[in-house]
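=== RUN LOG ===
request id: a7f3
mode: sequence -> structure
chains: 1
length: 605
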Amino acid sequence: MARAPLLQLYSISLTFGGNPVFDGLDLAVQPGDRVALVGRNGSGKSTLMKVMAGLVEADAGTRVVPPGVTVGYMEQEPDLSGFDTLGEFAASALPIGEEYKVAMAAEGLKFNPDMPVASASGGERRRAALAKLLAEAPELMLLDEPTNHLDIEAIGWLEQELSETRAAFVIISHDRAFLRRLTRATLWIDRGEVRRNERGFEAFEDWREATWAEEDSSRHKLERKIKAEAKWAVEGISARRKRNMGRVRALADLRAERAGMIRRQGAADLALDSGQTSGKLVIEAKGITKSFGDRVILLPFDLKVLRGDRIAFVGPNGVGKTTLLKMLTGEIAPDAGSVRLGTNLEIAVFDQARATLDFSMTLWDGMVNDPDMAVSGRSDQVMVRGTPKHVVAYLKDFLFDEAQARAPIGSLSGGERARLLLARIMAKPSNLLILDEPTNDLDVETLDLLQDILGEYDGTVLLVSHDRDFIDRVATTTIALEGDGSATAYAGGWSDYQAQRAARLAPEATAKAPARTASTGSSAQNRQTGPGLTFTEKHRLETLPAVMEKLEAEIGKLTDFLSDPDLFVKSPDKFRRASEGLAERQVALASAEEEWLRLADRTES
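=== RESULT ===
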């Protein structure tokens, strides 16, 4: 017998500031649903989730949750007032004796339950709110940007938890890899309409493009029909028109239908000007180290950054990624070693803390009072890549309307603040971009645009991010900080780093592994699934073909790229990086093939 929906919304209408957000919205979430909630920044995703959670009351319509069904909501800015510690807040709704569930979630999400609320950062508060939701285990979980402020290891832990839960969930996230793995359906908010597709986020972009193509086709047909009817109305004789007033009224209806169509919001007009060309050598670090008290952040580390490099820094939160960035740019000094900056550097910084934004200022004042953008004697103009431009016109390039220009920066959503910061750093020429967690809160379309302009940017990029998909799309080198003071460089992006690291560690793990006996422990990690294979090894055997296929494709692309006989003369830097990348991938492929053969042989033994 089919179970009733966990949540239903009927004819929901909601208006904010005189502008309709939803009108006549119907929505249902079924048991077992795993849904991605997507849409542009400002489209109403968080508002809809609050309506679903019962925290925002609609102007009209009905929210129905069957008796006994529990709905939990993790919001972006949780209220912890009234609680002394993060753990006390996270366990506040649990029965006595189940506080251990918070401790388990805290370990996976990497926060200290004993930390006082008063000294906790925004990220730590969000992790506590996420732990609270997971510990309570409601039948329906509503998660608003759960991966923000999580490092890649914690994101992986959360992915595993959600993949194994029996609860239904709806997720808002900018992390495409996270959504692709977890979701089986997609809710898309577009111009006040909520569409549902019974496929996960993996299929979203194809679905969106098909929807827009169908919409454009319908609009084109309507335009042609209006032109034909208008021509008849103009050229038809008067008596004929009098006998066909129904047709004239139909023309008016067609025009009203066209007027009622809501045009799609354009994409943000992102652009970067690399300005003057920097020297070939951008940064050279030799033997740099850093410690804070007894805690070692970085053991002796060498790095040479050349013009055009795109280097991603990855690792757990608190491991020292931002500290290393600041040492490389000269903002803080290393304990030992030296850092030499190249010539003609123009540096632009995207700060994850948004510390350069004054939340008490309006967007307008924040732009015209920026010394890098101010136009002498003008309070309505900003300098954009060397050319004066009206402040509202420039803000519109980043999808802010005129009313928002007079609003305080503090009233903006996280995604809007990120767009504003992009507007500021993109207004001035730069040839070295420092991007510290740029992807937090940005919608998929803006992320795609940012990725595209970074691909065309002539300067150098140093990037800190926990967004695996974005790193794969942007980085040419990945430097992994493991937390023990070591920093290791790998060619390529996140997936390349994972494959190369696995290949490097595989021989060590085999050499160190103790001989198995019949009394091996009974944990799921070690139970045998077949002749001689553990569950982990069986999973590895199943995933290796995809790893090898990706490496083969990349080797083919690099080989084609290097086949240009003039490449070395035209661009020796690109030739060097491509050659190194090709060698790295060939080693990784050979290692993956050997591992696959070894595991496959054991299944047949």
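=== NOTES ===
Residues 219-260 form one domain.
Residues 363 and 404 are 7 Å apart (CA to CA).
=== END ===
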